[in-house]
Design brief:
mainly alpha, 3 domains
């Protein structure tokens, strides 16, 4: 059985890599049709095998958790580094999500990228991206985790800058690369700290030794502060998670990822790179559970991201950027759940979000294709009559995002709000205020988008509107498949998420475990729905939808009047709180000015003029002086020798 599982895991992991290599290396030979077929077939194989593992472990319970070692990578000072798989509920759960969304994106891309001349390269990149994410979630040690972590960063750079002939795409790709390097610097320091104190990078070894290390209360000096060892590890590892999952202050790259093709936006935002940080904290729950400071930091920063990044979605006019800021906000909810030690709820929201966020992005892409790649919502309107399937699918995704029962996002998101309210961790009160206000903001910007795009009068010429039609079946079919889990997944997985569905793969200390209280209060989804109709978050979500209808259907001139009246806050939101501008000024221009200073002063003046030119000048001066001593007369040389002899004797006499 073990050997069979090993083969299943190997094929599930390597099939996307095979598809990536085939599409990339043989693209000119097999053309775009061959690239489609090979890469989609390989992803489908990986999805079917992931589904099989999911059913065996989490439905039929015929597969037990285990750790499978593949090979020895290195031996350093008696420490052996192994590469292997962690086979447990958390792994198969993530494998299923990643492969399902990736398969839908691959199929969708056939129609969306049909006219792109670099079609095989695109399929090579997205298959490689899927392979990288699977490496990350299947790892049984920090070494393979780090490989997958960096590989998804590499492929995100390639995909965001896919249309490299655009300057804006190159800038966005570079920004994503730099922001993630900042976070990954903290991440690799955290991995180094783990190795320093545990002497191993294997999850099982580290997790087994953590209670004893926590009991010792060891501290270390870090930048002049004495910090608890486990707290330091968790905060450094969270720096990497903040970069990958775009949490404040490393959120700046995610909005720019819209420069890539829309299918990439769906893949990055729904199931791959941005969820890596959320998954990593759940995987490392045996570490994070022993640091209240780290948990509180994750909770408050996540809640702040949920609110303040969502507010930025209120002023966006690009349809993809509205959905992008919704991703930032929802990632904040997931992180807040991880910070309150409700890891299963964070993963629950990750799952529901993967389906409805991919649905929203791909629905937005359907609109963009129908309007010949127009993304400005001010040039849309009335499209529900021309694109009914896309409209219904986007409406389902919007209701799920706004957490309206019984759609999937309601169960996962409102459980997180309830968990934060019942928590006793430091900072939970502030986090609760943020996430509750975020419910209103989420509903407002989501239905602002729906009303601007699909309702009201068309804001385009009658000729343009007449040519708008529903998208090709390769675009519409994935929307339908994604709409189904957006409808029912929250209802189906509500009870398992509260009942320890992930088993021993997620660690929960009883001292701050809020899940038993939630399960006792809401033993089934029906009870939770009844409670929701009296909850503050549900009322605020409805208020957000009503406010969007008033502002963008009933009185469409009202938002502009509010923007004119509140011009300073409105401009602040348009400039993204000034954070991007500050980064560009301080790090971008500051780095350029520092480089220019080092060039002009250090290189040009100190090195060139002082050292290089100065040494040449000194040589010439000394040469001129010494050349004057070479007269050619014998008595001059005799005099110099006698004088030198007297100088040496005099010096010897004085010393002795």
């Amino acid at each position: 059985m073990t050997e069979e599982i090993r083969w299943i895991l190997n094929i599930a992991l390597l099939a996307p890599l095979l598809g990536s290599l085939a599409a990339g290396l043989l693209g000119k030979l097999i053309q775009k049709e061959g690239a489609h077929c090979i890469s989609i077939f390989c992803i489908a194989v990986s999805f079917v095998l992931s589904l099989d593992l999911f059913l065996q472990m989490m439905i039929f319970h015929s597969l037990q958790p285990s750790t499978l070692s593949l090979f020895h990578w290195a031996l350093v000072k008696q420490v052996q580094f192994n590469i292997g798989y962690q086979v447990d509920a958390l792994t198969v759960f993530m494998m299923l999500i990643v492969t399902f969304v990736s398969l839908m994106v691959h199929i969708y891309s056939i129609g969306y990228m049909a006219d792109d001349p670099s079609n095989p390269r695109f399929f090579s990149y997205i298959s490689g991206f899927t392979f990288s994410m699977l490496s990350l979630v299947m790892a049984n040690n920090f070494l393979l985790l780090f490989f997958g972590w960096e590989a998804v960063g590499l492929f995100s750079y390639l995909l965001i800058g896919f249309w490299f002939h655009r300057e804006s795409a190159n800038v966005a790709a570079f920004r994503a690369f730099i922001a993630n390097r900042v976070g990954d610097f903290g991440f690799i320091l955290g991995v180094a700290a783990v190795f320093l104190y545990y002497g191993s990078l294997n999850y099982d070894t580290v997790f087994a030794a953590t209670p004893a290390l926590a009991a010792q209360g060891l501290t270390m000096n870090f930048l002049g502060w004495h910090v608890n060892v486990i707290t330091l590890m968790c905060l450094l590892l969270f720096a990497g998670a903040a970069g990958k999952s775009a949490q404040i202050p490393l959120h700046i790259w995610l909005e720019g990822s819209m420069e890539g093709p829309t299918p990439i936006s769906a893949l990055i935002h729904a199931a791959t790179m941005v969820t890596a940080g959320v998954f990593m904290i759940a995987r490392l729950s045996p570490l994070f559970d022993y640091s209240l400071m780290a948990l509180s930091t994750v909770m408050v920063l996540g809640a702040a991201t949920a609110l303040f990044m969502g507010i930025l979605g209120l002023v966006q006019m690009d349809i993809k950027r509205v959905v992008a800021y919704s991703t930032l906000s929802q990632l904040g909810y997931m992180m807040a759940a991880q910070g309150v030690a409700a890891y299963p709820l964070g993963m629950f929201h990750l799952m529901t979000h993967a389906s409805f966020k991919a649905l929203l992005f791909l629905s937005a892409g359907s609109v963009i294709v129908a309007l010949h790649h127009e993304q400005d919502m001010r040039k849309m309107g009335g499209l529900a009559r021309r694109m009914p399937i896309t409209y219904v699918c986007m409406l389902i995704g919007a209701l799920a995002l706004a957490a309206i029962p019984p759609f999937s996002g309601f169960f996962s998101k409102d459980l997180i709000i309830e968990a934060i309210q019942q928590s006793t961790l430091p900072g939970h009160g502030l986090a609760y205020i943020f996430v509750v206000l975020g419910a209103f903001v989420t509903a407002l910007y989501t239905f602002r988008m729906v009303f601007l795009v699909f309702h009201g009068k068309p804001r385009m010429s009658p000729e343009q509107f007449a040519h708008v039609h529903e998208s090709h079946w390769t675009i519409v079919l994935p929307l339908i498949f994604l709409a189904l889990p957006s409808l029912v997944s929250g209802w189906l997985f509500f009870e398992p998420a509260l009942q320890g569905w992930f088993g021993g793969s997620i660690h929960l200390l009883p001292s701050h475990n809020v899940l038993p209280a939630l399960l006792q209060a809401y033993p089934n989804p029906e009870d939770f729905m009844i409670h929701a109709f009296h909850s503050l978050s549900f009322g605020l979500a409805l208020a957000g939808i009503v406010a969007a209808w008033i502002g963008y259907v009933w009185a469409p001139t009202l938002p502009q009047k509010i923007a004119n009246f509140l011009s300073w806050p409105y401009q602040m939101l348009l400039h993204k709180y000034g954070i991007d501008g500050f980064y560009d000024w301080f790090f971008g221009k500051g780095g350029m000015n520092l480089g220019r200073f080092l060039w002009k002063v250090g290189d040009d003046w100190v090195i060139d003029k002082s050292c290089v030119d100065g040494s040449g000048l000194m040589t010439r001066v000394l040469g001129t002086v010494l050349r004057g001593l070479q007269t050619g007369y014998l008595y001059h040389y005799a005099f110099a020798m006698v004088a030198g002899l007297f100088f040496i004797l005099g010096a010897y006499y004085l010393v002795s």
